[in-house]
């Protein structure tokens, strides 16, 4: 799609679903079942930051618990009541609540849907080059490479 073909505005729930459900290697990718991501920022050609509308089905998680080295993240709850899991513990969230994670803070986080209803939330994150992510609960480290592609390694440095 070229710049002249990009829409001025859309209904967020009509945006295309991300074709690849997860960038994680196995055995982690299959743990993302029940997560549906609509990359809203990509629809408009945004390059400095990303905006995703994410739906979590009951029992689903937003991501592995992670912390970015150079990327700020912001989450805004649209519908449902997910639980935010951070280094500080668990925080129940509800529509209208938001949370932010400063780059380099080391505060690993994720959302978990422990309810019987879908949860819907916006995630905004910048696309700072040279970012990396740690996953304290899993044998995984991620490094953002050229072209914005993530490379995943074991904590000992061996590639997946």
Question: Can you describe this structure?
Answer:
Helices cover 2% and strands 37% of the residues. It has 160 residues and is mainly beta. A 5-stranded antiparallel beta sheet has the order 1-2-9-4-7. The mean pLDDT is 95.
How would you describe this structure in keywords?
mainly beta, 160 residues, four-stranded antiparallel sheet, five-stranded antiparallel sheet
Topology:
Layout: E1 35-39, H1 40-43, E2 49-56, E3 67-68, E4 73-79, E5 83-86, E6 89-92, E7 98-101, E8 109-112, E9 119-126, E10 132-135, E11 140-144, E12 150-153
Antiparallel strand pairs: 1-2, 2-9, 3-10, 4-7, 4-9, 5-6, 5-8, 10-11, 11-12
Q: For the CA atoms, what is the radius of gyration? A: 16 Å
Mean pLDDT: 95
| Cross-sheet strand order for the largest sheet | 1-2-9-4-7
Largest sheet: 5 strands, antiparallel
Coarse structural class: mainly beta
How many helices? The count is 1
Helix content: under 10%
Unreliable runs, pLDDT <50, ≥5 residues? none
Q: What order do the helices and strands follow?
A: EHEEEEEEEEEEE
Cα(first) to Cα(last) distance is: 33 Å
Strand content: 35-45%
Number of strands: 12
Shape: globular
In a nutshell, what does this entry contain?
The chain is mainly β and 160 residues long. The chain contains 1 helix and 12 strands, in the order βαβββββββββββ.
């Amino acid at each position: 799609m070229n710049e002249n073909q990009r829409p001025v505005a859309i209904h967020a729930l009509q945006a295309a679903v991300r074709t690849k459900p997860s960038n994680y290697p196995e055995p982690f990718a299959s743990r993302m079942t029940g997560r549906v991501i609509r990359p809203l920022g990509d629809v408009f050609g945004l390059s400095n930051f990303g905006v995703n509308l994410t739906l979590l089905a009951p029992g689903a998680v937003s991501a592995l618990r992670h912390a970015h080295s150079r990327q700020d993240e912001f989450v805004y709850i649209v519908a449902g009541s997910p639980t935010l899991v951070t280094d500080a513990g668990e925080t129940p969230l509800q529509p209208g609540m938001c949370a932010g994670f400063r780059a380099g803070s080391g505060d690993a986080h994720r959302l978990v849907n422990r309810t019987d209803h879908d949860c819907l939330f916006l995630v905004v994150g910048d696309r700072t080059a040279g970012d990396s992510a740690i996953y304290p609960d899993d044998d995984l480290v991620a490094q953002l490479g050229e072209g914005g592609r993530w490379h995943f390694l074991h904590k000992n440095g061996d590639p997946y």
